[in-house]
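Morning. Coffee machine broken again, so started the prediction first thing and wrote up yesterday's gels while waiting. Chain of 238 residues, entered below exactly as on the submission form.
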Amino acid sequence: MLFNLNVSILKLFAEIFTSKEYIGMIFKGLGCTLLISVGATIVGIILGTLVAVVKIVPSKNPVMKVLNCICDVYTTVFRGTPMALQLFIMAFVVFAIRGFPMEVVAILAFGINSGAYVSESIRAGILSVDVGQTEAGRALGLSYGTTMWKIVIPQAIKNVIPAIGNEIIALIKETSIVSMVGGLYDLTLVAKIIGGGNELANFLVPMTVVALFYLAIVYSLTFVIKLIERRLRASDKR
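Came back before lunch.
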């Protein structure tokens, strides 16, 4: 019986990789997963950088004090609550608008959550840059904002690339819950559909196949991050 089960599992593996229907479903789900991951990464990095700069700027100005307080609340709330709960609130409360694209909802939900983590990484990176760099920029007549964007932040990003890379990897894996809100055809949902649609009702095989796709994405991203780190280290030695 165990032998027959193993043979059936191998047949299902072969069927998934040879069936145009299954392969088409998997690549459609892969496209959705990559779309959400890339979009959320862009939103997260931009938002995280802005929040980090606001939290670093001296808060003598009343407006900056208010913004600083808002940023503190933002990072506390989004780092302290489950991603699934945030996704549900975004989908069924904030953007509960008929016809509103669920892909955009997912990108914003994951991007805003990621921005809270990225902001703390970038803030730590900014603080790691020698204060003399800021003083030198100001001595050359540059404004505080120009000094931050032209001198400090580029150096800070060098220091936090590993941390940001880890956050992007975590973000990609977190997108596996998007099917919970419906209307999104991602890799995990494809695995569920294939698992429930085969004659064995076997979820292990399609889930394993999808896991291999996630592993390939993460490995490729890890390779790119290491390549960037090597090039940056090489540029520092010049």
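The mean pLDDT is 84. Going to sketch it on the whiteboard this afternoon.
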